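in:
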């Protein structure tokens, strides 16, 4: 109970940081150009299927616009990247951009699940697409779409010594042009096995959005990848948006 005997909302208290060892994760992504011959594709802004690295590596970051430069006055100046290290513990690293010249980091990431602009010039956002790759550019781990200042990737990995509880999922299809429909799947991946745990459908002639709240949340163990793929579309140039929410619980100490 709270003040004046009012019931407290558990999730709000978690968001306030008032519930020890509990936190929330909101993952959202978009893939704005899925064709009938290219699916499945992961719901992330870079397009295509997401590739999970097999080993930790340093990052290489570049923009396709010269104005995203730490010494400039217009676009993005700095970004912060969040992910997991070789032990699957949470890490982050700050980068000062150098426009169309790549900058490299020092921390080694085995997963990247979020990045956003932390300082910008007069435009208040990144002018170009910011790409986050591994050190030899063989894998794209994330990207920040132009003018969005934030990654859009329905991709996450549960850290070591944590459990994640899937509280909600959603997907939407852009309603434009001819009638379109699409199917979207929620997948988990661990120990070399990927598994579908939820499938949903959206269409422009009926429900353009699908929302599901889990009364009994799905449980994900540590080091589990969770992501959303678009499995099928009826028309070329289909745009899909997807989201999932997680309650993250630290299992160390008394929760172990």
């Amino acid at each position: 109970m709270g003040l004046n005997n009012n019931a407290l909302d558990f999730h709000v208290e978690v968001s306030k940081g008032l519930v020890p060892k509990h936190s929330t994760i909101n993952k959202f992504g978009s893939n704005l150009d899925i064709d009938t011959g290219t699916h499945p594709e992961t719901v992330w802004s870079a397009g295509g299927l997401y590739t999970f690295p097999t080993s930790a590596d340093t990052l290489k970051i570049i923009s396709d616009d010269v104005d995203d430069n730490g010494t400039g006055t217009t676009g993005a100046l700095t970004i912060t990247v969040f992910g997991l290290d070789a032990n699957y513990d949470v890490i982050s690293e700050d980068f000062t951009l150098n426009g169309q010249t790549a900058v490299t980091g020092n921390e080694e990431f085995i997963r990247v699940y979020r990045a956003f602009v932390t300082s910008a010039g007069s435009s208040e956002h990144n002018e170009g697409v910011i790409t986050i790759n591994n050190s030899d550019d063989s894998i794209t781990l994330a990207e920040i779409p132009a003018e969005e200042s934030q990654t859009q990737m329905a991709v996450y990995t549960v850290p070591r010594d944590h459990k994640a509880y899937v509280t909600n999922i959603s997907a939407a299809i852009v309603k434009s042009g001819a009638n379109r429909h699409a199917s979207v799947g929620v997948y988990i991946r661990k120990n070399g096995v990927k598994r579908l745990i939820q499938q949903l459908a959206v269409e422009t002639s009926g429900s353009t959005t699908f929302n599901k709240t889990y009364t009994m949340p799905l449980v994900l163990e540590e080091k589990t990848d969770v992501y959303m793929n678009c499995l099928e579309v009826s028309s070329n140039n289909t745009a899909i948006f997807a989201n999932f929410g997680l309650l993250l619980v630290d299992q160390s100490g008394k929760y172990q």
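note: Residues 22-50+155-255 form a domain with the Jelly Rolls fold (CATH 2.60.120.340).
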